[in-house]
Amino acid sequence: MAETILKLENIIKHFGENTALKSISLEVARGEFLTLLGPSGCGKTTTLRIIAGLESPDGGRVLLEGQDVTNLEPNRRSVNTVFQSYALFPHMNVEQNIGYGLRLKKLPKQEIAQRVQEMLELVQLQGFERRMPDQLSGGQRQRVAIARALVNSPDVLLLDEPLGALDLQLRRQMQQELKGMQKKLGITFIYITHDQEEAMNMSDRIGIMNAGEIVQLGTPDSIYERPNSRFAAGFIGQCNIADATVLAEENGLLRLRLGEGEVLASGSARPGNTGALCVRPERVRYSLSETGGFALDGTIREYSYTGGTLRTTIVADGGVQFLVTDLGEDDERLAVGTRVHIYWDPKKAVLVESGANADE
Amino acid sequence: MPMNSRKKGGVPLAAVPMYIWTLLLVAIPLIYIVGLSFLTKAQTWGVDLNFTLDSYRKLFTPSYLKVFGQSLYVAVITTIAALAIGYPFAYFTSRLPKRARSLVLMLIIVPFWTNSLVRIYGWMILLRSQGVINGLLISLGVIDSPLKLLYNFGAVMVGMVYALIPFMILSIYNSCEKIDWSLVEAARDLGATRMRAFWSVTVPLTMPGIMAGCVLVFIPSVGLFFISDLLGGAKTMLLGNLIKNELLVARNWPMGAALSVAMLLMTLGIITLYKRMAGDKELEGLL
Predict the structure, then answer these.
(1) Could you tell me the residue range of the domain that residue A189 belongs to?
(2) What is the pLDDT of residues B32-77, one digit of tens each?
(3) pLDDT confidence of A187, banded at 50, 70, 90?
(4) Does B190 touch chain A if contact means CB atoms closer than 8 Å?
């Protein structure tokens, strides 16, 4: 991995009685696209504001390029932000908005004009120089906000749900463009969103945040395939999550009691421990004859076909409900009420939050 | 349908009383004043019905021009002082927590419930030789003999700014409250110091309030007469004083009317200028 450009060390932030950030530590590599993903109120925006210097932490340090910038004013950090509301200056036209940071640096007029043009080209807004922000569409404002932040060539660009206000189609297009710009410029992006699909699409790494903590940090694949908590499993994609008890360890896998059945999964736990079994709907199989070495039976309750995906709900003995998705290619579906064996590839299911007292 | 008449450009029925009201209280007196200004002063009392431009001609004599100049000077100084004090006041008020904000605004508005003349008498009590301020300074041993605080230009300015500053504060407060503070944060984020962000973002965004406040302070300060009478000892002759004198003391009604018309035109000129610069309808409900 490339060198670290930004480092957060045990950042703590309180707002009155509320703890916004419990203890955030994070290392971001140069040129990385890192997404902080979480529900509203999880502290992701506060984290971003602390990096930008718009909020000062109650504890911990922010290091940029190895320098402690914790107490540095926002104007003295080589970090720029694309605000959620865009925050374009309404009394300046597009050109003046984009050139604002350069004018502050007192660069020669010609150079400012040239770099503003480069930015307009990058965000494909040539010809809009004289427009005022209120004469632009949401997508165009978004582009101006990005250009205004990028023109300063910051070490790190912070983006606070920049696409939240755009409609779905435009959002998809902007996702592509943003990713493209990021690769082209090689600037480190820290991106905030509550949209898990957006996070999966764009990021090199994702940090899932909940209640003021980063609960899991990793590549999109690893987070999807190996969630480390109920929250992470449930927040990204769909997941079957069920309480299970460890019976034994077999060949590096765990044999679990699940309802009235026995299943296999990966994970590290001791016999007697309890935890949450997470298995993605597309990993679950069912069959009349095959057992996959499992001892879990259930009854097909219902089907629903949603264009390309067949969703089958199966209730396992003991009451645990499984959602199974497949392409629905079988010519004959088993009738609702049919008794089937349920199984999966044990390496694709994981037991999380396991412990002797997991219930507490 | 009465509702449709408005769309067609007709006069809605409900507005008729308002038009009668305006006619009686604004249009008729105005026509009366304008008419009066073209008549001749009668030897004894009132006016003779002889058309003349004499009153207007007299406006351009040095003694009258001097009063215009003095009035404008006082108005400009009053406006600048009110802006210099009012802006920071309004700015910081708008950033207070909600409860404190309402309290401060309340404190600004409460004096309006009292007659302004009474409040100016209050200033006399504070400023006069045996007044509160001199008494306090003497008892503290800061000074030996009372300072001359009353009946001078400074006292007039204090009274003017005091009387008119609420208009400035409320106008600017109104603008400050509407500011999207993320714009200031964006400026800071893009490299602006606090000062630079203030001058390049906050001030332009509060410009409508600044302009409205200046107009609302400037215009009445041209005409206010009792403040310079009471606090200035009638030594500072302003347009308002002059009009009052012409009408009540000299009993030269045409001259008083001509001065009023001149003041009205001046005011209209300023408002037109303001509207052209501000380019919005912010003041339409107020003036």
Answers:
(1) 4-231
(2) 999 999 988 887 777 788 888 888 998 899 988 998 888 889 999 9
(3) very high
(4) yes
Tens digits of per-residue pLDDT, B65-121? 998 888 889 999 999 999 999 999 999 999 999 999 999 999 998 888 888 888 888
| B190 closest CB neighbour out of A85, A91, A101 | A101
Dihedral (C-alpha) A323, A327, A328, A331: value to the nearest 10 degrees? -150
Quote the ipTM score: 0.84
A307: left (phi over 0), alpha (psi -120 to 50) or beta: left
Amino acid at position A285, single letter? R
Structural element, H or E, at residue B66: helix B62-94
Which candidate from B188, B191, B205 shows the least CB-CB separation from A152?
A: B191
- Which residues from B are below 8 Å from A85, CB to CB? 180, 182
* A360 in any annotated domain: no
Q: A324 in a domain, yes or no?
A: yes
What span, in angstroms and rounded, lies between the C-alpha atoms of B223 and A117? 53
Residue contact A80–B190, C-beta within 8 A: yes
Report how far apart, in Å, the C-alpha atoms of B99 and of each of A237, B105, B107, B109, B177 are: 45, 10, 13, 16, 14
Which residue segments constitute the domains of chain B, with CATH numbers given? 62-278 (1.10.3720.10)
The DSSP letter of residue A125 is -
Residue A293 CA from chain centroid, whole number:
35
Give the whole-angstrom CA distance, residue A145 versus residue A151. Answer: 10
Both A227 and A334 in a single domain?
no
Q: Which residue from A minimizes the CA distance to B202?
A: A89
Chain A residue numbers with beta carbons less than 8 Å from the beta carbon of B277 are none
**Residue of chain B whose alpha carbon sits nearest to that of A154:** B190
Q: Which residues of A touch B180 (CB under 8 A)?
A: 85, 87
From the list B182, B191, B200, which residue is nearest A83 (CB)? B182
8 Å CB contact of B189 and A91? no
Whether A195 and A243 share a structural domain? no
pLDDT band, very low/low/confident/very high, at B2 (cuts 50, 70, 90): very low
Partner A contacted by B201 (CB < 8 A): yes
Inter-chain residue contact B192 with A104, CB threshold 8 Å: yes
CB contact under 8 A, A91 and B191: no
Domains of chain A: total? 2
CATH of the domain at A90: 3.40.50.300
Q: Which residue, A197, A231, A265, sits at the end of a domain?
A: A231
Contact A85 B188 (CB under 8 A): no
